[in-house]
Fold this protein.
Amino acid sequence: MTNFCTLYSSSSGNCTLISDKDTNILIDAGVSASKICDSLNEAGICPDEIDAILVTHEHSDHICGLRVFCKKYNTPVYASEKTAEKISETFPDIPAGNLHAVSPSGVFKIRSMTVKAFQTPHDSSEPYGYCIWSEEKKYCVATDTGKITQAMLTNLAGAEAVLIESNHDEEMLKNGPYPYVLKKRILSDEGHLSNSSCAWLSTQLALWGTKRIILGHLSEKNNTPEKAYECSKNLLEANGFKVGSDVILKVAPKSELCNI
């Protein structure tokens, strides 16, 4: 049985676990190493059993715990070439042999799992989402994306379960406390996905057979779990899906495990 689980998910820190009986992979390490270890222990995984960390991009809410965790457990790290360069600049004491640059043009193996990267539109050096095949099913992570691209749709299509971004309610963001420049960045094509865009994506994926959806990376200032959930739920049900049976829909909490 494959376990697909967010450990942390918000604008202040992100870390996701996918594990089966043979392999344990983290996607991002955006909180302290001690917090990651505590969550792994809660999930029944020893930190030294993590086989790899896949990094989506170099922003601190995705890598701040990477250095300490990798040095303590000698964990291999996979990222795009430009993201790997940024990691090396930020954490020069991570051994170069632990950093592996990967490309969307091919797949690679981590023990029993197969991984494929795909490009996402975000204001970082070379951001990726990931598809991971475990026990013949596909699991995907696509957060930190300002718009939905054809590359995203192609790679997410047919996934058993996905973690996708439902970052903000547009009215809350527009009327909220952020300065104009930051609002403009978040709303841009290289910013973050709104609840309404996420609802469209959730429905499209359900039409293609996805059964389990986690809404993640919620803004703490410009969203609520209730708004994110209701937005996707309403559009799914308007398209004939019964949430809870046809599609399992959950909102990832900021700092608690969320299995799906």
Observations:
- The first strand starts at residue 3 and ends at 10.
- The chain has a mean pLDDT of 96.
